[in-house]
Amino acid sequence: MHSNLCLVIVWSVLALTLCQDVPPFTEDCQHGMYKNHDRSLGVPPTFKVNLDKDPMTRWNDVMKHKGNEMKAMIGQVKNLLNNISPKLIETVEKYLPNIINKLPSPYDVEIKGIAMATGAPDADVLLFNIFYEIFTVCTSIVAQDTNGTLYHARNLDFGLFMGWDVKNHTWLITEYLRPLVVNVEFVKGGKVLYKAVNFAGYVGVLTGIKPGVFSFTLNERFNLDGGFVGMLEWILGDREGHWTSFLPRTVLESAASYDDAVSMLTKDELLAPVYYIVSGSKPGEGAVITRDRKETANVLKLNVTAGDWYVVETNYDNWSNPPFFDNRRKPAKKCLDETGQKRSQFPSIYDVLSTKPVLNKLTTYTALMRVDTGALETYIRYCSDPCYPW
Predict the structure, then answer these.
(1) Is 138 a catalytic residue?
(2) 171 within 8 A of 34, measured Cβ to Cβ
């Protein structure tokens, strides 16, 4: 499998070098994709998670419907780790159960509850949650139209280098993740407090919206002082850093305004460097927060008066150029510019996120959010061949 993966990487880089500005890698901006999306095939189910219930049981309904798919996903991850080194699995089974008890509340109990509901070992469910702290590849957009309405959208890409299916030209982990995509409404006091797009079995939040207040997406930031380092420090006893997807869930529960959310996401120490992309409900409320583990490196804000009516974030710092072999930023900005501010709404932004390589073999779902109305639309995505691996 490793030799096949190496061939895929070499082929991909060579193809991009030769075809950077032509299909299928950087294709013409797509149109009409939102209208023509087959919603009967690509809309995930919605579940309610009652925050007033015992954390041990609040995910039971989700697991009743998605537990088998979660266990299949975990089995695939363990197979991949075993192919790298059987000692990795021994380490997971030996040490991870003890780590669960050191997680912040309520995530420790929720993970145990998911394990109990599905019959999966505690260590396996924690492993499933840890994977997202280490590597995701995404594209996020916040755009303001000429009426001052804000739209927040993202593609979530996951599974890079985690097993390439040579026969079907797909990433194995990505294929296992798509059936796990769910919309979750977090309820408190009988009312929906916030909404999220989750992978069933995952207790953090990567994409979320608090209606009328703010929305956020989380993108991985590639950095040498990355998630592996932070996770190792946390395991060895340094627990000052927040898990990057636990912090946003805390912010969704407690932030009373867009400014509160931005402030909370810029201050606390994290396990991994990330980008938090945030949108509010009022004109001008949009930002990309570039986080180091210990501090905030940069905050890029909408500046409509200067012509900056949108912000785009993939997985590279906004003040530097992306590598030539992974330049999703360029086609995303090109298509937004072609669309124009006046037509910046769900359909046109969906088209941007449907343009290759913004849409690629790693893309699991597209989410569209509008804070002022509380709208959240989620679509499971597939990238038909020819399509770039990432």
Answers:
(1) yes
(2) no
